[in-house]
Amino acid sequence: MYVYFIYVLAVTMKKGSMQTQKLCLRELFSRMASSDDEAALWELHAQYFHRLYRFVFAFIGNKEITEEVVNDTFLDIWQSRHLLPKVLSAEVYIFICAKNRALKQLSKQNKHADVLTALHDIECVMVRTPYDILISSEMCRRINRAIRLLPPQCKLIFTLVKENGLKYREVAGLLGLSEKTVENQMSIALKKLSQSVPLSFSS
Q1: Among 147, 69, 144, 141, residue whose Cα is nearest residue 103
Q2: What does the pLDDT look like over 176-188, one tens digit per residue?
Q3: How many other CB atoms are there within 10 angstroms of residue 89's CB atom?
Q4: Are 14 and 129 in contact (CB under 8 A)?
Q5: Which of 18, 40, 156, 158 is 20 to 30 A removed from 185 (C-alpha atoms)?
Q6: Out of 73-77, 147-151, 196-200, which region has the weakest mean confidence (pLDDT)?
Q7: Could you give the C-alpha distances from 58 to 21, 102, 119, 124, 155, in angstroms and in order?
Q8: What is the number of other CB atoms lying within 10 angstroms of the CB of residue 150?
Q9: For 33, how many CA atoms within 13 A lie in the half-sphere containing its CB?
Q10: How far apart are CA 121 and CA 111, in angstroms?
């Protein structure tokens, strides 16, 4: 359990950084809406492309099409920039736009199955940052191995909560699930993580 709790502590330390990013995102929205600032769009693209790529890939499962869908998402946001001041949660809004684009693409491909039961596996890798000073390279490797073994839906929810800082209710609304389902999936993820990571590195 020691390694697992070190991981949780490191994630907690990142929350302040996430809050700063959300304030920055709100500022980018403001610049796009009030000044037609294209530089703000490119900053948004740089900050969120890889996050949205991973999210959209879970629905699409094709690298080239996923990249196209994500780029179209940023175009949609730009073309609707006059609506951005009315957005309550900028972070959630971006993911909703990406999901809508992904579902539109699936409709073009005549794929009408329940997307949450046909999710593609995504890469979910914890990268060490200055906020992870308590996590060694070996610990990081073991944690990532445990995360990779999570089922696709569980891994997607885990990524949205722990790596993107979304609240359970926000993830539930985004994916069309109950908040209880999200809570249960997070419990499964954290339990599997704690069970998969050894107590120490001496073994």
Answers
A1: 69
A2: 999 999 999 999 9
A3: 16
A4: yes
A5: 18
A6: 196-200
A7: 24, 10, 5, 11, 10
A8: 22
A9: 16
A10: 17
Question: Which residue in this structure is represented by tokens 């697992």?
Answer: 4
User: What whole-number distance in Å separates Cα of residue 107 and Cα of residue 113?
Assistant: 10
Q: What long-range pairs does 15-24 form, CB within 8 A, spacing at least 24?
A: 15/165, 17/131, 18/164, 18/165, 19/165, 21/47, 21/165, 22/90, 22/91, 22/165
Length of the chain: 203
Domain ranges of the chain: 2-196
Burial 53-87 (b: 16+ CB within 10 A, else e): bbbbbbbbbeeebbeebbebbbeebbeebeebeeb
The tokens describing 154, both together, are 């569980």
Token pair belonging to 194: 């704690």
| DSSP codes, 108-174 | HTT--S-GGGSPPP----PPP-GGGTT--HHHHHHHHHHHHTS-HHHHHHHIIIIIT---HHHHHHH
**Which of the two residues, 107 and 139, has the higher pLDDT score?**
107
CA 194 to chain centre: 21
User: Residue 123 — very low, low, confident or very high, per pLDDT cuts 50/70/90?
Assistant: low
Task: Say if residues 119 and 156 touch (Cβ distance below 8 Å).
Answer: yes
**Cα separation, 95 vs 29, whole angstroms:** 14
